[in-house]
Write a structure and sequence with these properties.
heterodimer; A: alpha+beta; Rossmann fold; Dna Ligase, domain 1; D-amino Acid Aminotransferase, Chain A, domain 1; 8-stranded antiparallel β-sheet; 5-stranded parallel β-sheet; about 35% helix; globular; B: mainly beta; Glycoprotein, Type 4 Pilin; OB fold (Dihydrolipoamide Acetyltransferase, E2P); 4-stranded antiparallel β-sheet; elongated
Chain lengths: ~500, ~160
């Protein structure tokens, strides 16, 4: 590398995305500084960084959302750039402003573009005026319940309540009838207040069973803007994406080109810079509507990287350092098929309740075209202070069928013990005939997975058999004892053995 | 050597013997030959098929992963009884617990209310998500131990019910 793009980058995030950003820094030979809350003092991202500074107690408001503290740390430690990751401060326009005032480069869009796009209501109006299709609904924020009732009636139930500052499904509620409206608006406002510190919500027509398709866009400071094709993110639970893939089975080359150029137009109209994502809904008739633009690196960015060969985080850092969009990206095409599964700490067999605890065993799958972006390791303690996303598993294969098959193998080989994870649920979803047929609509999970029952009977005997062998190692230390443990240990009766050798029969 | 495990309502008994090819475990009518290949990682041969299984013992629990299926087996304690699984209060039909530590967002019932089985009782926020907790049984709300906005753990019941029979 001829010159360093930045002296030192502060990564204002935690978990897998902080680790991902730090790995990009390492490749660019830029030292990375981690910030962490007291709950994260032994977290993977802290150990991945070149330096780490504690910024406060576990509550995000006092640590990862504390702009003043983070800026102070950056200034005090000679950081000349900050990468916000996703979530936390990544879409808060005050953060790039604060960076600017402190003479620090914010690796992301300018705050004006963020302000416009971060307000879902304003951006709807602006894009609509520029000829980008939008979903019918409220064009101003809801003030009182009468206003919501009126708008809901004019759009027609079912309707969707959304947070103006929203993202990631927080503060979103589908409402089927007038009776549910008030309680849903209240719940959405509470969630929005907690997640974004802004309880503004609005309402739009709920498009039933659409596909959720987004386009990766990149714009530099020199007037260039491109898209890097789509990501199909229709498979969601409670508006949280769980499986993403690219290419989408729903797009023809013509539709792809049409949506791609609409995405670039959205970025251009908004004065966008750096990497961003334009989300669309695609209905049954092939009509698409602008939903919102996410002004950050997305959780699911790796599927784009796998198929286009891009390194989006490196590109973010380059563009923030005033470089032009890389030549290789301008020529990029889609190669093969990539799928990402999000690994959440939750119990799919028990209503997806969040799961917490210590990771007692951890092993990642390996092989060609298998990638794990993880923020955990053995010994990590998963608490309740933060989002339950632990890691992402991404596979790349020549065809969609092979990618599905590879993902199922990789999920089986991804071993995480001590907490509940959604791996088996993901395997069952990928194995579903409707998924294999590419019929991925936003109702996929409720339609196909609601009656899912995990048959554990065949596994139970095997589990007990292995557990009894595992217990032989430390029956007393574990506080448990076998019923008749006075006998001779099988290790004593096993006969002669050598490591790495089969005992001859 | 004989061991007992509990999984939900099932009780499973295993018997370990040494065999010619390693450790052999009998469960019911089934035979498994098992060897540890790495700490916590095992190969199990059953009817000529090899499966890779991960297993870690902690406290009174055996955590097991078989192809992404997670099974937490409970190991009997010395007095022959069982300790319940982490945060588990599955046997108690007259109490409503938080699924995990969090904050009570909204109580949906008050003392004296008649409730149906599966009726939403309380919303608890944990990990930034609102989780609705439903009633395990039909009955009458006898006692509510928390108020909206309070922090709650998993040890103390949020709501106690008088069950109708």
């Amino acid at each position: 590398m001829s010159h360093r793009l930045f002296k030192k980058i502060l990564v204002a995030n935690r978990g897998e995305i902080a680790v991902r950003v730090m790995n990009a820094c390492k490749i660019l030979d830029i030292p990375a500084l981690a910030v962490y809350s007291t709950a994260d003092k032994d977290a993977v991202h802290v150990h991945t960084a070149n330096e780490a500074v504690e910024i406060g107690p576990p509550s995000p408001r006092e640590s990862y959302l504390n702009i003043d503290r983070i800026i102070d740390v950056a200034v005090g430690n000679n950081c000349d750039a900050i990468h916000p990751g996703y979530g936390f401060l990544s879409e808060n326009p005050l953060f790039p402003e604060a960076c600017h005032k402190a003479g620090i480069t914010f690796i992301g869009p300018p705050s004006d573009a963020m302000k416009l796009l971060g307000n879902k209501i304003q951006s709807r109006i602006k894009m609509s005026t520029a000829g980008v299709p939008i979903i019918p609904g409220m064009k101003t924020a809801g003030v009182d319940i009468e206003m919501f009732e009126k708008a809901a009636e004019s759009a027609g139930y079912p309707i969707l309540i959304k947070a103006a500052a929203g993202g990631g499904g927080k503060g979103m509620r589908v409402v089927q009838s007038k009776e549910e409206l008030q309680s849903s608006v209240e719940a959405a406002m509470r969630e929005a207040k907690n997640a974004f510190n802004d309880d503004t919500v609005y309402l739009e027509k709920y498009i039933e069973n659409p596909r959720h398709i987004e386009f990766q866009v990149i714009a530099d400071n020199h007037g260039n803007a491109i898209h890097l094709f789509e990501r199909e993110c229709s498979v969601q639970r409670r508006h949280q994406k769980i499986i993403e893939e690219t290419p989408s089975t729903a797009l023809t080359p013509a539709l792809r080109a049409q949506m791609g150029s609409a995405a670039v137009r959205v970025a251009t109209i908004a004065g966008y810079r750096n990497a961003g994502t334009v989300e669309f809904l695609l209905d049954k008739n092939g009509s698409f509507y602008f939903l919102e633009m996410n002004t950050r690196i997305q959780v699911e960015h790796p599927v784009t990287e796998m198929t286009t060969g891009a390194d989006l985080v490196i590109e973010q850092i380059r563009i923030a350092a005033n470089e032009k969009i890389s030549d290789y990206l301008i020529k990029a095409s889609q190669r093969g098929h990539a799928i990402e599964c999000r690994i959440y700490a939750e119990d799919a067999e028990n209503n997806f309740l969040p799961s917490s605890g210590e990771i007692l065993y951890y092993e990642e799958p390996v092989g060609p075209g298998i990638r794990v972006d993880s923020g955990i390791t053995k010994g990590s303690v998963i608490g309740v202070d933060y989002d339950p996303i632990l890691a992402k598993l991404i596979v790349h294969a020549p065809t969609r069928d092979l990618a599905i098959s590879k993902m199922i193998c990789a999920l089986k080989d991804y071993k995480i013990l001590g907490i509940k994870t959604s791996r088996r649920f993901l395997i069952d979803a990928l194995n579903h005939p409707e998924f294999k047929a590419g019929k991925t609509y936003t109702n996929f999970i409720e339609k196909n997975m609601a009656d899912r029952a995990l048959d554990i009977e065949p596994a139970l005997e095997l589990a007990a058999a292995v557990s009894s062998v595992a217990m032989m190692k430390k029956p007393q230390a574990s506080g448990a004892s076998s019923v008749k443990s006075k006998g001779i240990s099988p290790w004593q009766t096993i006969g002669s053995w050598e490591i790495g050798m089969r005992i001859p029969k | 050597m004989i061991n007992q495990f509990r999984y939900q309502d099932d009780l499973i008994e295993t018997e370990i013997n040494s065999g010619p090819g390693g450790i052999e475990v009998t469960v019911g009518d089934e035979q498994f030959r098992i060897q540890e290949i790495l700490p916590g990682k095992y190969e199990a041969f059953h009817n000529g098929v090899k499966r890779t299984v991960c297993c870690v013992i902690k406290g009174a629990q055996a955590f097991v992963d078989i192809d992404g299926i997670l099974l937490d087996l409970v190991i009997p304690s010395d007095d022959g009884g069982f300790t319940s699984g982490a945060g588990g209060h599955s046997g108690e039909k007259d109490k409503i617990y938080a699924p995990m530590p969090g904050k009570i967002v909204k109580l949906l019932v008050k003392e004296g209310d008649k409730v149906e089985q599966k009726q939403p009782m309380v919303i608890v926020e944990a990990m930034k998500m609102e989780n609705q907790v439903n009633s395990p049984s039909a009955g009458v709300v006898k006692k509510i131990n928390f108020k909206d906005g309070e922090q709650v753990g998993t040890e103390v019941a949020i709501i106690e019910l008088e069950i109708e029979f």
